[in-house]
Amino acid sequence: MNNKVNYTLIGIITLVGIVLLMGFGYWLLKPTNEADTKRYIIYFNESVLGLNIDAPVKYRGIAVGKVAAMKIDPKNSEQVEVAIDILSSTPIKTTTLARLTAQGITGLTYINLSMGENDSPLLETQKGEKYPVIKTEPSFFENVEKSLSDVSMQLSSTLARTESLLGAENQQEFSRILRSTANILEKVDRTLDEKSITHIQNTLAQLDATSKKLDAMLPQIEVFVAKGIEWEANTSASLGSIMQSYLGIRATMDEIKRAVESGEFNIKEITGEVVPTLNTTLVELQNFMVQMGSVLEQHQRSPSDLLFRQEEIKKGPGEE
Amino acid sequence: MRYILGWISVIVLAGCSVSTPAVSEYRLAPTSEVKQEKALACEHSLKVQNLLSSAALMTQRLYYGVGQYKQFAYTQAAWSDTPQKKIGDLYVALLREREIFQSVHSYRSNVLTDRTLEIVVDDFMQYYDEDYKNSHAKVGLTLTLIDTAAKKPLATKSFKARKQAPSLDAQGGVDALNEALQEVMEASALWLEGECK
């Protein structure tokens, strides 16, 4: 048996092995690109049931990070503070919103980030905070819960009002209204016999015909209105003229009134002299008209008498 | 042209060549033979209105009736004044003469009076029978005394007279008409005297 061991070779191989083992460990523990993350804080005002540590954080459907820690906010016990690590390359902006989203029917939940507005500035750490805080929006269940709560409250209110509406007094009123309605409907039913329906149909037909005639008359009515406006303008002008005449007459009457009051124009004195004379003149005129009538009667009876007296003269008794 | 104008003148003037008989004009001048004592005048003044009559009495033609319906005019006799005007003037003269009223005025006067006398001539004509053998004159007047201020009639009365014509001609008719008119005027003056008081 060869007892000659090459301890040097063994030492070298052992050292090489140790070096390889250390290299393997470094390879395993070497930081990857995923380690280039940034931490953000999210405060949820709702239950984060189903959300676990290392639950994915997705941005437009792409897993960009994971939940790093969760705890109750020490400053506000109704909030849950969730710390997430997100790849630094993810553009988290001030308008980005976080929302709890159910992951199928597994009961698990992940955080979905909405993209926000494209031209919004990137989210930065605010003064007094350790990490940037991403705003949240209510989850689907939260909305459903709120909606159900609102519906429940409104339903309760409606039920209360319905109960008030269906009180004993109102029920009597409803009964009375229903009886009245039934009576009215019965009368309407009696009224709307075949003859009445035919009459209504005829009336509607006539109404339709009247409507058509009215449509045909509308242009004429428009012409009539236009003429009416023109007539109104003419009338207005005439009224203006009448007004001028009235003012002239009024001025004249005022002048006559002044003359009468001052004694310059004594109607009684004037008429006292004129009327009898006028009366006499009219009497004389009447006599003249009678004589003219006599002459015309003679001329009509025998026109030739104007040149040659031809009418046979009937002499009176005792005349030769 | 001269011949045409000459013939026209001859034709026109030919009418003047016709000879017409002379016309006698008669006046209405009734003469009262009754001497009435003058009454005490009442305190009213009177105006005699223009008479209301037919158109025949408003001309100077002297008409006469024959029978019941026919009426003619004398050709050689006429009134010197229209009967309508003359009768009114006669009434004014008579009432002034009788001094029944304080004053009496014609309708032509401007004087305002408190009484007015309205006279309607119902009839004033000479009538012949159908055979021209008999003639008479009829006069009918209706007098109404009116309160001038109130324009209300105070009294009214009709007077009639019929007189036989002394001759069957215009002269006889005028005489009968004057006589009948005198009778009517006398009766109406007495009536007015009673109404005035």
Strands of chain B, count = 8
Query: CA-to-CA gap between the ends of chain A?
Result: 225 Å
Radius of gyration of chain B: 21 Å
Number of strands of chain A: 7
Q: Helix share of residues of chain B?
A: 25-40%
Q: In the CATH hierarchy, what is the superfamily of chain B?
A: ABC-type transport auxiliary lipoprotein component
Instruction: Give the CATH architecture of chain B.
Output: 3-Layer(aba) Sandwich
Structure write-up:
The complex is a heterodimer of chains A (320) and B (197). Chain A has 320 residues and is α/β, with parallel strands linked by helices. Among the domains of chain A are: 33-137; 140-191; 212-271, no CATH class. Chain A is 55% helix and 14% strand. Chain A has five helices and seven strands; from the N terminus they run αβββββββαααα. In chain A, strands 1-4-3-2-6-5-7 form a seven-stranded mixed beta barrel. The radius of gyration of chain A is 61 Å and the shape is elongated. Chain B has 197 residues and is of the alpha/beta class. Chain B has one domain: ABC-type transport auxiliary lipoprotein component (Rossmann fold). Chain B has helices at 2-14, 83-98, 170-196; strands at residues 24-26, 45-48, 61-66, 70-79, 103-106, 115-128, 135-147, 152-164. In chain B, strands 1, 2, 3, 4, 5, 6, 7 and 8 form an eight-stranded mixed β-sheet that branches. The N and C termini of chain B lie far apart (77 Å). The model of chain B has no long low-confidence stretch (mean pLDDT 89). Chains A and B meet through helix 5 of A and helix 1, strand 4 and helix 3 of B.
